[in-house]
Design a protein that fits this description.
The protein has a single domain, classed as Trna Endonuclease, Chain: A, domain 1. The strands form 2 sheets. It has a 6-stranded mixed β-sheet. A 4-stranded antiparallel β-sheet has the order 5-4-9-8. The protein is an alpha+beta fold. Strand 8 and strand 9 form a beta hairpin.
Length: 176
């Protein structure tokens, strides 16, 4: 079995940075600056990018890039099954999660709204399939398991939890 690694995920997301940046410029007409965050402790809290807007507002974006489109998104509820550490859905400080798919489609989800849905609809959330993934932390030499729920994009659209979608042609399906 091939182990998942945080470093590999970061490499995939880094290779998608140019596509993310083009999307940010298209989506936010008042964008002044895109600042990529390098500090790992901040990245682990969902700070991949800070977008500075003309009104001095800062948006914190957590970038997720998928290599395949399975018609769902992953919501990690356990970051480390062995220690019981909560997943990003509970620990994430971002304003938005930008989910980029291989066809260049990008879904923006408001972190606070997704978290509220998970917390308020526990019985519904727990019905979805688990995806446990074994990870290897090379720096510490340990293997641990993250656990996520597979949430269908169709449901997220129906619940209006996807704030907007940019497809290959640049068309916005939902506005922020």
């Amino acid at each position: 079995m091939k182990l998942h690694s945080y470093q590999r995920s970061k490499r995939i997301e880094m290779s998608a940075q140019t596509r993310f940046d083009i999307i940010y410029k298209d989506c936010f007409a008042n964008l002044v600056n895109i600042k990529r965050i390098e500090e790992r402790h901040l990245q682990l809290k969902g700070h991949d990018v800070h977008l500075l807007l003309k009104d001095d507002k800062k948006l914190i974006i957590d970038e997720k890039a998928r290599t395949e489109d399975y018609g769902d998104i992953l919501i990690e509820y356990l970051s480390n099954k062995q220690t019981g550490r909560k997943g990003w859905i509970y620990e994430n400080e971002s304003d938005y999660i930008a989910y980029l798919f291989p066809n260049n489609g990008c879904y923006f989800l408001k972190t606070k709204e997704i978290r509220e849905w998970v917390e308020n609809k526990q019985s519904e959330f727990w019905k979805f399939k688990d995806l446990p993934v074994d990870n290897k932390d090379k720096r510490r030499g340990i293997i641990y398991t993250t656990v996520s729920k597979l949430i269908p994009l169709k449901l997220l659209k129906e619940l209006n939890l996807i704030k907007f979608i940019i497809n290959k042609g640049g068309e916005k399906w939902h506005a922020v």
